[in-house]
Amino acid sequence: MKTFKKLLLVSAMSTVLAACGGSEQASSSSTAQPAQAEAQKASAPANNVPVAADNYVSPLPANAPTVNVATVGKTLPFSFSDNAGQLIGMDVDVIRKIGEEAGFKVQFHKKPWVNMLDSVETGESDLAISGISYTDEREKKYAISNSYAFNPSSLMFIREDLNGKVKDLNSLEGLTVGVLVESKQDSQITAANKAKSIVRYNSTYLLFTGMLKKEVDVIAQDSLLLNQLAKTNTEYKTFSVNYENESEPSARLVILVNKDKAQLRDDINKALAKIKEDGTLAKIEEKWLK
């Protein structure tokens, strides 16, 4: 059995569901007003706290430079803690291998979703990797790496009467849709202007449970995340449909680098090309996604 499937059996639900969000106790919001987003940023911890108990030993020399890497750290299969408290996951393996090729060590810092993004923009963190998709807005704020994985947006629901009816963003008329605040799906659902209303949640835990509680008809989130939620909650019958394809840039995962560190981004791209070419990246994806 693959590593990820083994870990699903022992991972706590809070780890599985608290993906890409802020405080799990925060209430959902019906509209994404700027003041609300700012309040969420202010209420979440902003300190750059290194991940404790990291037993990984880099093969690089002791004097190799260290890059500060921000990640949510609660997002299967991207970055999360195992039973021993070690940070593991696809993105953890990817950035470590990139660092080994590029000649830098990594120091992880776990942060809530919004704080993670802000920390790279301000320079508190050098880069962020945590199941982050490309968007035009992020292109303006960060030096963005080339893509390293395919992760399309997906719609999920438990209402059987919607099966076959909900197919894409244009089929959301008359429905209440839940999204993670400030996510790409938030922007996509808003721009489509088809949903009856949008409920914005501060974490994927609240987003998923909002669907189970029937606060919303449909939720929109990354396909890889929703697939894992379905696998770990088999007592619920869920339906899902992707609404992005591989030709769309927003369906690709990228690494966000501080805008002033374009050379670091270039070094990452060179190393990424190398681990794609030699099959290392494919092995990492096989380990965590199959």
From TrEMBL:
Region (Disordered): 24-46
SMART domains the UniProt entry points to: PBPb
Signal peptide per UniProt: 1-18
Domain Solute-binding protein family 3/N-terminal: 66-290
Keywords: Signal
Domain of life of the native organism: Bacteria
Gene3D superfamilies in the record: Periplasmic binding protein-like II
PANTHER family according to UniProt: L-CYSTINE-BINDING PROTEIN TCYJ (PTHR35936:SF35), MEMBRANE-BOUND LYTIC MUREIN TRANSGLYCOSYLASE F (PTHR35936)
Protein name: Putative amino-acid-binding protein YxeM
Organism (species): Kingella negevensis
Gene for this chain: yxeM
